[in-house]
Specification:
With 335 residues, the protein is an alpha/beta fold. The chain is 35% helix and 14% strand. Strand 1, helix 1 and strand 2 form a beta-alpha-beta unit.
Length: 335
């Protein structure tokens, strides 16, 4: 019997990968070692510096940028992080911003210009509300993990080292903040800060109903030489991630597991809106359109050195996977 291949993995400690981490799911012909997860921000920096593992969760937009610059990695069609982004645009209560069009000419803060969330939020503002990125004045906190030259006409400044965009929003030094996470001011119910979209859930549900897009944030990268040498690993790994995901669905559908009062009702509402598998893996037509939109945003925002296509970003074996995957585990409805 041939010896199994051994790969290291660096990704978030998600329920979706729990069965893989615990060894209940094993990819055919491969042993996986999950290395220490350094945190949401640091993982992207490590991958950008080629200091990650063999297999890495990575910012889906920065991946497009890095590939356009010739980085020799590729990606599995495994999308571990998705998130709607209307609810992550925050404004100072005294900014005079009531609707997206009011962002025109305003001071907009971002922790970094190239987080996956920022690509999507800038794209949404332009496509859905007619507010292009060059209509706003950008104030950036941190250097991007992947270098880039701002496109002509883009008004951008780095804030002084040690300053925080979240604090500047509270003080009114910037008018709005596009953030991958929820700032403390919102968590602490600080009345000086509010969301641009007050009922962001309704806005996001309407967006999905109109577009069918549940935005893909992250891809799963793998060293290109590994796929070139052993192309069969694309199917083995993708199917293992899929099986782990089905374990997760079976586990968390049980309302005893999640300490939320209306968890089962929320689960049912989400499935009614988003379908049976909102976290679909593989390059289905829907996923190609979804991730293709992020790729298009990176291209249109002037952040790729050459125009990228999905064929530049995934190995041919990813397109050859037979879909849909055979579902092995189903949640028990008797709760």
């Amino acid at each position: 019997m041939a010896a199994k291949l051994k790969f290291t993995v660096l990704c978030g400690e998600y329920e979706l990968v729990r069965a893989l981490r615990e060894g209940r799911v094993k990819p055919k012909g491969i042993d996986l070692e999950f290395v220490h997860y350094p945190g949401t921000r640091d993982i992207h920096s490590l991958v950008a510096r080629d200091q990650g593992a063999d297999i890495n969760e990575y910012n889906g937009g920065a991946y497009v940028m890095a590939k356009s610059q010739g980085r020799p990695f590729t990606a599995l069609p495994v999308f571990l992080h998705r998130r709607f982004r209307h609810g992550f645009i925050f404004v100072n209560a005294k900014s005079g911003i009531e609707k997206p069009a009011d962002l025109t000419g305003k001071k907009i803060g971002s922790r970094t210009f190239t987080s996956a969330a920022d690509f999507w939020m800038r794209g949404l503002l332009e496509d859905e509300y007619g507010v292009p990125q060059d209509a706003m004045n950008w104030f950036i906190q941190d250097r991007s993990e992947v270098s880039f030259k701002p496109v002509k006409g883009l008004k951008m400044k780095r804030i002084p080292k040690g300053r925080k965009i979240a604090d500047m929003l509270v003080k009114g030094e910037v008018d709005a903040f596009m953030s991958p996470g929820v700032p403390k001011a919102i968590i602490n119910k600080d009345r000086r800060v509010r969301r641009l979209f007050a009922d962001h859930k309704a806005t996001e549900m309407a967006y999905f109903e109109r577009t069918g897009i549940f935005p893909i944030m992250h891809v799963t990268t793998i060293r290109g030489e590994l796929v070139k040498k052993e192309p069969w690993i694309v199917e083995s790994l993708t199917r293992a991630f899929e099986e782990s995901k089905q374990y997760a669905f079976a586990r968390i559908a049980n309302p005893r597991i999640v300490p939320l009062a209306w968890w089962r009702a929320d689960w049912e509402e989400e499935r009614q809106c988003l379908g049976d598998d909102p976290w679909e893996f593989g390059l289905s037509e829907a996923n190609q359109r979804n991730y293709g939109m992020l790729v298009d945003y990176v291209n249109r925002q002037g952040l790729s050195q050459r125009r990228m296509r999905l064929e530049n970003l995934f190995p041919k074996e990813a397109f050859e996977l037979k879909l849909p995957f055979r579902v092995k585990y189903r949640p028990d409805d008797n709760y």
